[in-house]
Amino acid sequence: MAKCEGCGPGYRTPLDAMKGAQEEIVYVPCIYRNTGIEKPDYLATVDVLPGSLTYCQVIHRLPVPNLRDELHHSGWNACSSCFGDSSRKRDKLILPALISSRIYVVDVGTAPRAPTIHKIVEPTELFWKCNLANPHTSHCLATGEVMISTMGDPAGNGKGGFVLLDGDSFEVTGCWNQPGEEAPFGYDFWYQPRHNVMISTEWGAPKALANGFKPADVEAGHYGRHIHVWDWSSRTRIQSLDLGEEGAIPLEIQFLHNPDATEGFVGCALHSNVFRFYKTQKGDWDAEKVISVPSKKVEGWVLPEMPGLITDILISLDDRFLYFSNWLHGDIRQYDITDSRNPRLVGQVFLGGSILNDRPVKVLEDKELQSQPAPCVVKGKRVQGGPQMIQLSLDGKRLYVTTSLYSGWDKQFYPDLVKEGSVMLQIHVDTQTGGLRLNESFLLDFGQEPGGPVLAHEVRYPGGDCSSDIWV
């Protein structure tokens, strides 16, 4: 591996990344599956540079050549884990399709404002070489390879394994994990090589969640509640931490960005709790609940109690603030995690949700709010759905928000979101003492797209961000 001082992709440290250039464009997957519109998903390029003539507009659309892929999360071919390698460039966006199991490799280096498809990895490659399917999270490795977590096997059963792509040809080279070491379910992961560890999470069996959520599937064991600890060098699963009912459906997970850190956080959707995981004095790993969002007693909804449904979390690059979205309650929260065992709520903003004061749902008991929040209207547009995917600017001052979770669940919980399309919003962040404030002049209405209303998901910056770069 060619070594140098500061000529590879990304940044030397997380704090150096905070001094990086302001984002000018972002990439956003847009999904048509389950909307009734028979068109391919596409990758939208959005101008987010204030003062630009096309500010807050989609400036390019890259359709994929297939229907009903369900583009979801994306990652990079190279990031800060390859910082010392002068042969590597961050010029390909890795874009797995959650339902079809395709992987699109998108060239964003040749023309960043007009990406093109570089390669398509067909599902049969994952099926035949790894017996895995439903790819989710992509992370680049210091070796130059790309690693992608999976949620299932080709039959739709839960199976948490990891696919490796060659960093040059993007061919599937096999599984990262040793044979037979797969977890019962899969979803997200984060690795920390200085401690020879990776930790992964669980959503559920793809065949159970593909077209909607059924509470009975939780009781039947089709959804996960464990986080899994992996030995990074031997590629074996060495611990599975049962988070219990309070930790059901652990989704997004992050270590602190400091590569020396031995702790991080995971958002558990079903009962809206955040767990801190950490290395113990004995050298193994454990987890403890540190944040709990109380459910609300309601009438006029599918269940008598409504959870917040924590669906996305992220940590600022200085490891000072934790952010997460409550997709059902409709708020985004900011916590000071300077004392990681005792996070302190310092910012909150409501951006829609299911408990608005003009909706059929009536809140009977609320342990946090005195009244039901008002609808969120930005530039005359009422926000449908609730805040879901979040992405923070490198300097920590701007938080981008989109409102689609996953088309099958969008259709079930927020049918108006599917009819009208999702939105992208921007939140001003107080990085001194904490605080969140909606930018009233920023709105990207994906309901006005040329092909019809579309569901916009995760946000990525060409130069890396708070949830894709890992330092080694």
UniProtKB/TrEMBL annotation:
Gene Ontology, cellular component aspect: cytosol; membrane; nucleus
Recorded GO MF terms: methanethiol oxidase activity; selenium binding
Residue ranges the record marks as coiled coil: none
EC number in record: 1.8.3.4
Topology in the lipid bilayer: Peripheral membrane protein
Superkingdom: Eukaryota
Entry keywords, A to Z: Acetylation, Cytoplasm, Membrane, Nucleus, Oxidoreductase, Protein transport, Selenium, Transport
Keyword Oxidoreductase (UniProt): yes
Pfam families for the chain: SBP56
GO biological process: protein transport
Pathway involvement of the protein, from the record: Organosulfur degradation
Tagged with keyword Amino-acid biosynthesis: no
Localization of this protein: Nucleus; Cytoplasm, Cytosol; Membrane
Family: Belongs to the selenium-binding protein family.
Role according to the record: Catalyzes the oxidation of methanethiol, an organosulfur compound known to be produced in substantial amounts by gut bacteria. Selenium-binding protein which may be involved in the sensing of reactive xenobiotics in the cytoplasm. May be involved in intra-Golgi protein transport.
The name this protein goes by in its record: Methanethiol oxidase
Organism: Acipenser oxyrinchus oxyrinchus
